[in-house]
């Protein structure tokens, strides 16, 4: 089980959505929902739809708590892939911080695998 702390950003909904609300400030749940709706190249596969719907279910539960999102490990991995592959119409510092939190997890995992391979055998 993975936990994502829900944080508020300085991003207005109108900065990301064409008809977004100028007064609504987005939080991590909002950004994840936007990322889930970004259509991958070639469209959604049935697996994409199932994975994204499970993540949405977790987001819906988190909306009542508003402090953290709880995801099963497989759903967290699916979300990491969605975030890593997402394309945005905004270049913003708060968005960059949000994205880096996911990228750091992906890159740390790769670095750990590399360091094990690079360890000399005796």
Walk me through this protein's architecture.
This protein is α+β, with helices and mostly antiparallel strands and 122 residues long. The protein has one domain (2-118). The chain has helices at residues 13-16, 28-37, 46-65, 73-85, 93-118, and strands spanning 2-5, 8-12, 25-27, 68-71. Strands 1-4 form a two-stranded antiparallel ribbon. It has a two-stranded antiparallel ribbon with strand order 2-3. Helix 2 runs antiparallel to helix 3 (46-65) and helix 3 crosses helix 4 (73-85). It is globular and about 35 Å long. Mean pLDDT is 84; it is low at 106-115.
Topology of this protein?
Layout: E1 2-5, E2 8-12, H1 13-16, E3 25-27, H2 28-37, H3 46-65, E4 68-71, H4 73-85, H5 93-118
Antiparallel strand pairs: 1-4, 2-3
Describe the structure in brief.
The chain is α+β, with helices and mostly antiparallel strands and 122 residues long.
Low-pLDDT windows of residues: 106-115
Provide the β-strand percentage band.
5-15%
What global shape is seen?
globular
- End-to-end span in angstroms? 37 Å
Number of folding domains?
Answer: 1
Strand ordering within the main sheet: 1-4
Helix content bin: 55-70%
Main sheet record: 2 strands, antiparallel
Structural class by secondary-structure content: alpha+beta
Helix and strand string, N-terminal first?
Answer: EEHEHHEHH
State Rg. Answer: 16 Å
Summed up, the helix count is 5
By DSSP, the count of extended strands is 4
Mean pLDDT: 84
């Amino acid at each position: 089980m993975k936990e994502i702390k829900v944080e508020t950003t300085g991003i207005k909904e109108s900065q990301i959505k064409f008809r977004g609300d100028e007064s609504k400030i987005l939080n991590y749940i909002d950004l994840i929902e936007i990322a889930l709706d970004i259509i991958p190249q070639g469209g959604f596969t049935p697996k994409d739809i199932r994975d994204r719907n499970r993540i949405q279910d977790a987001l819906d539960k988190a909306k009542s708590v508003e402090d953290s999102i709880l995801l099963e490990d497989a759903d967290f991995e699916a979300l990491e892939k969605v975030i890593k592959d997402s394309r945005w119409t905004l270049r913003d510092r708060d968005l960059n911080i949000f994205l880096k939190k996911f990228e750091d997890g992906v890159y740390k995992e790769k670095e750990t695998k590399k360091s094990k391979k690079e360890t000399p055998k005796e």
